[in-house]
Specification:
One of its GO terms (cellular component) is extracellular region. This is Complement component C8 beta chain. Keywords: Complement alternate pathway, Complement pathway, Cytolysis, Disulfide bond, EGF-like domain, Glycoprotein, Immunity, Innate immunity, Membrane, Membrane attack complex, Secreted, Target cell membrane, Target membrane. Belongs to the complement C6/C7/C8/C9 family. It is found in: Secreted; Target cell membrane. The structure is a single chain. The protein has 419 residues and is of the alpha+beta class. The chain folds into two domains: 122 residues, no CATH class; 195 residues, no CATH class. It contains ten helices and 18 strands. Helix 7 packs across helix 8. It is flat. About 5% of the residues have low confidence.
């Protein structure tokens, strides 16, 4: 692909979004009594052009003499609104097993299976969502992790009592990687980009028909504001001679594993599946993938990732007789947490005054910077206004990391997964 450099005096012309002509109508679906057609995206909106803010699929009613062969047989209780089929033993047990409470209606007596108050696993709702592997987005709920099938055995994690959802095989608490930083030096933007930025890029090599094996990291999706700001700030240094120090700490809260079979789907997803035509229609399935993703999560690690990048002015550093390693050692010294940092030097080889001179520029937005051109933080997990405010202002301290770790415990994000 050729690249074009646009000058300020000659900006690119707006390009409007364009869709293809409509496909031909599908056959009349005997179960839905509908037929379908769709259009494909031919050109996305660019440079301020008009978006395609109209539908790219159409449906209309139709009649057919062909029989519907997709009728669902239920030998238990058929839920009134959601259409879910549940065992009769789950009626009048105090739980919303149907998802529409029809299993708890007209009860002469409620035999509560679960009297004691129990919590939901941390981060369990996100684990029930579908993942779009083309965009790294978590989409709508595919699995119902609020369905328990009458199960009520408490699972204790420390002093908290949790109720295990029917779909979950295991949710194992972990405390690995606590507050350990791995610090890496990069002597050019291209090295930093290939190692750090590309690792965060949306996974674009997946396609249908390719089996995805192994565990992969769930990076940031391109619409995530945290990631957008991070990339924007980093790209300012793409044509400079700056050097980079990247530090990363990963904290694992729990390992999640889904049951291998007989899963209970979320009732809204189930209804959408039942609305699909019997024969494949590209437009209808495309819409389902948009709303619910392409895959569901079978295994995952939940927790948090705390990382920062120091952008260093190599020319000024050299003039003062400092090296990139000196800055790294000072950053490690500044994070005075004990023996949990890889590569801590007993003898820094740089004076304490020199370290203070380097480190005082971090997070100081008012003074003119000599050595540290920027300090860029990215925090994944542990959503907390207090932690975020401190994190984006200065190098992490032992106290801040403890606060972040506590926040991650209750607000973990998916950091690795298997689909």
């Amino acid at each position: 692909n050729s690249r074009h450099a646009w000058s300020v005096s000659n900006p690119p012309q707006p390009r409007d979004c364009m869709l293809s002509a409509w496909s031909s109508w599908s056959k009349c679906d005997p179960c839905q009594k509908k037929r379908y057609r769709f259009a494909c995206l031919e050109q996305p909106s660019q440079f301020g052009g008009d978006p395609c803010d109209y539908s790219d699929k159409e449906t209309e009613d139709c009649d057919t003499n062909n029989p519907c062969r997709n009728k669902v047989r239920c030998e238990g209780f058929m839920c009134a609104v959601t259409g879910r089929c549940i065992a009769r033993r789950l009626l009048c047990n105090g739980d919303d097993d149907c998802g529409d409470l029809s299993d708890e209606k007209n009860c002469k007596k409620v035999f509560k299976k679960c009297d004691q108050k129990m919590e939901q696993y941390w981060g369990i709702e996100n684990l029930a969502k579908g993942l779009n592997i083309f965009t790294n987005n978590l989409e709508g709920l595919v699995l119902d992790h609020r369905y328990y099938a009458g199960g009520c055995s408490p699972h204790y994690i420390v002093d908290t009592r949790f109720r295990k959802p029917y779909n979950v095989e295991s949710y194992t608490p972990e405390t690995t990687g606590k507050y350990e930083f791995t610090i890496t030096e990069y002597d050019s933007y291209s090295n930093y980009e290939s190692s750090v930025l590309k690792a965060k890029a949306v996974q674009s090599s997946f396609s249908f028909g390719i089996k995805i094996e192994g565990v992969f990291e769930l990076g940031y999706n391109s619409n995530d504001n945290r990631f957008k700001k991070f990339i924007q700030r980093m790209k300012r240094f793409s044509s400079t001679s700056s050097k980079f120090i990247h530090a990363r700490s990963e904290l694992t809260v729990a390992i999640y594993k889904l049951k291998p079979r007989a899963l209970m789907l979320h009732y809204e997803f189930l209804q959408r599946l039942r609305q699909l035509p019997s024969e494949y229609s590209y437009g209808e399935y495309r819409e389902l993938y948009r709303d619910y993703g392409t895959h569901y999560i079978t295994e995952a690690t939940v927790g948090g990732i705390y990382e920062y990048t120091l952008v260093v002015n190599s020319n000024e550093l050299q003039k003062a007789g400092y090296s990139l390693s000196d800055v790294q050692k000072c950053a490690q010294r500044g994070f005075n947490i004990g023996g949990n940092i890889y590569g801590v030097y007993v003898n820094l080889g740089i004076s304490e005054a020199g370290c203070k001179s380097l480190l005082k520029e971090i997070g100081d937005s008012t003074s003119k910077k000599t050595y540290v051109e920027d300090f860029i933080v990215l925090v994944h997990g542990g959503a907390s206004e207090h932690v975020t405010t401190l994190a984006y202002r200065d190098l992490p301290t032992a106290a801040l990391m403890q606060d972040w770790g506590n926040a991650v415990q209750y607000n973990p994000e998916i950091i690795q997964l298997k689909v």
